[in-house]
## 1
Amino acid sequence: MNYLRRRALMSAAALLAVLATTSASAAPMLDHLPTFDALSSRLELTPEQQSKLAPLFDKRAAQLREAKARLEQATSRQAKRDVLRDAKNAGDEFSRQVESVLTPSQQYKWRDLRKEMRAEAKERIEDASGSRKP
């Protein structure tokens, strides 16, 4: 698996948090996410799990690219909220599909990773907007 594909796959895993918690500034967050290899290592995925998850992550990465494009084209606050709501709903479904492949201990790690990514994304957004308190 090449670097860009791995990066896209992992981006899909965590971008739900970014899109669900941000506004138009969500799009740049694609570049700050760990690779699929890092996810695989952290969750200790088996080769069978990797083969089941890879298509899900490919699909999610495509959904996120589409959401990013829609977000950039949205002209009103309501349109941006609609894009983010749709992305969150798709992300929730994606997460359910991922969890269906994972063991209970991996599910716990997956949820923990998602929390971490949300916190990191929020911090980056606050830093970028200058709204973070020292």
## 2
Amino acid sequence: MVLKKHTFQHKYAYDGYYYKATFPITLAYAIIGHKSQGATISSKVIIDVKEAFALGFTYVMLSRVTNRKNLKIIGNLIPNDFIPCTFEK
């Protein structure tokens, strides 16, 4: 992602102009997949599926988001990402 600088020209109350340059960035937060378990996330989310290291973990990360429009997935999903984990008794 490339951030482009925005430059604005403003006029002083008296003679002259000044220029202000800004970068369009937004405050963001990050949590790990384990921390998201049991959470309901309604804000925008970026999920890096390459970081899902355990069976069923991709499902856990994806199922926390309440609205699909707020979800951005980085990486490729494969069928093996959705194999449920089984526990032997």
